[in-house]
Automatic annotation (TrEMBL):
Gene3D superfamilies reported in the protein's UniProt record: Periplasmic binding protein-like II
Protein name, entry field: Extracellular solute-binding protein
Residues covered by region (Disordered): 32-55
Lineage, broadest ranks: Bacteria, Bacillati, Bacillota, Clostridia, Lachnospirales
Natural source organism: Diplocloster agilis
PROSITE patterns xrefs: PROKAR_LIPOPROTEIN (PS51257)
Signal peptide extent: 1-21
Length: 449
């Protein structure tokens, strides 16, 4: 029966293919995407321009409509003669729309937003300027180490610049931490949860002391996302997709958490799961930096002062991100580069991204300025979460290699997380076997093991 349940889930998801970016809709793996996407019809190409001027018009296709408009508005204060046309394309349609334009020879935008788990797929389209060469001359070593090679392709070309880094930690409710662990201090909690096995030990304690009412984590999908991205095991090596090697640790831990009731049965990103942020029965949440606004504050408006951030036992991890690249068919490459360069690689642009969008660009020299980040956050009980994210967490993140099948495997991962919670009799071995079978069905041009 359990194979049938998982088979149905996987079959239903086949239509998803690779149309999603850094995770599925509603998943916290879709940063700066679904959480911000608007409902304008992507087929109508609804757009908004920057200020009027006599210069060329740079066209950007994006799912992140409002934020890109704000970038354009501030850019136009400095470059009023370069118009920016922002075209809203639904997140779920985006990569397919780019593929279709390439296949049909249709006009592409000047700037393309590249989802982090599809970067290699974008690179294989062969449509982007190499930003490491003249006239751009970008040295990726100016970016944080964990992200500097993410948009670098096998031939050494740099196809995009990250809009905002996405360091990720564990958020927790201070009152529940004190109740069950005796402290709400992030450093002390990191000592209590120093090893991944401690989540099992302490999660069982929470269950026992609450009479089965409280859980350490709310959703298997969120836990799977954290464990997967924290694991630096390469997915692709020498032309082989190592599905088993990449997924084993995640699925084993997830099943152990399920069996010991460390994680609740909510499906990540649903209204029911989001409601747990304000309850007194769920303690910890894997937390990319962007999740603070889109999940924690959005779902626990009265929770100011009751939240904290701690280092995961796995170390920090990167979850999400979008790069901006310039198409090689553009007739205004210089103007497109001025937009990307000003927004992401100048101090004024970086301050605008921070202040207006709450985005933190990847150019690491800005973070050496003590005025650029830091300060007590009232919502997080006075904790300096900016310094925590952009110093402590950033420096603990391992480097992940990219594969053209990142999103394919992530889609299967999310389905397995649902399946093991739906069927408590499904073992980790069962889930891995079915996931491997599905990976082989979807990935037909490479060896999958």
């Amino acid at each position: 029966m359990k194979k049938k349940v998982l088979g149905v889930l996987l079959a239903c998801a086949m239509v998803a293919g690779m149309i999603t970016g850094c995770g599925e809709k509603g998943d916290t793996a879709a940063p700066q995407a679904d959480a911000q996407a608007k409902t304008q019809d992507s087929q109508s190409g609804e757009a908004a321009g920057g200020s009027e001027g006599s210069g060329k018009t740079v066209t950007i296709w994006t799912w992140d409509y409002d934020n890109t408009l704000m970038m354009a508005e501030d850019f136009n204060k400095v470059y009023p003669d370069i118009q920016i046309e922002v075209v809203n394309v639904a997140y779920s349609d985006y990569f397919t729309k780019i593929q279709q334009a390439v296949a049909s020879g249709s006009e592409l935008p000047d700037i393309v937003a590249q989802s982090c788990t599809l970067l290699k797929n974008y690179g294989e389209l062969g449509i982007f300027e190499d930003l490491s060469k003249e006239p751009y001359n970008v040295d990726s070593n100016i970016f944080f180490d964990f992200i500097k090679d993410r948009a670098v392709m096998e031939d050494g070309s740099l196809i995009g610049i990250e809009e905002s880094i996405s360091p990720s930690a564990i958020a927790y409710k201070r009152d529940l931490a004190k109740q069950y662990f005796g402290t709400d201090d992030p450093d002390e909690l990191a000592k209590i949860f120093a090893d991944p096995s401690d989540y099992i030990t302490q999660g069982k304690k929470v269950q026992e002391e609450s009479g089965g009412e409280a859980y350490l984590f709310h959703a298997a999908g969120a836990v799977a996302e954290w464990l997967y991205f924290a694991d630096t095991t390469p997915l692709e090596t020498n032309g082989t997709i190592d599905f088993t090697g990449k997924m084993t640790g995640t699925i084993n831990m997830l099943c152990e958490m399920r069996d010991n009731k460390v994680v609740d049965t909510y499906e990540n990103g649903t209204a029911q799961a989001n409601a747990t942020y304000s309850d007194d029965k769920h303690i910890m949440y894997p937390c990319p930096n962007w999740a603070i606004n889109y999940y924690i504050k959005a779902n626990d408006a009265d929770g100011s002062g009751n939240w904290g951030l701690m280092m995961p036992a796995t170390g920090g991890y990167s979850c999400g991100g979008t790069s901006l690249g310039i198409t090689n068919t553009s007739d205004c490459k210089d103007e497109a580069w001025q937009f990307i360069n000003w927004c992401l690689m100048t101090k004024d642009g970086a301050e605008m991204m921070r202040d207006r969008l709450n985005f933190f660009v990847p150019t690491k020299e800005f973070f050496d300025d003590p005025e650029f980040i830091g300060g007590e956050d009232e919502f997080f009980g006075g904790q300096d979460i900016e310094s925590f994210f952009y110093k402590d967490i950033v420096n603990s993140i391992g480097t992940l290699t990219v594969s053209q099948y990142d999103q394919t495997v992530i889609d299967i991962r999310d389905l397995l997380a649902i399946a093991v919670m739906d069927d408590p009799n499904m073992t980790a071995a069962d889930a891995l076997a079915k996931g491997l079978e599905e990976a082989k069905n979807r990935i037909t041009d490479m060896e999958v093991k």
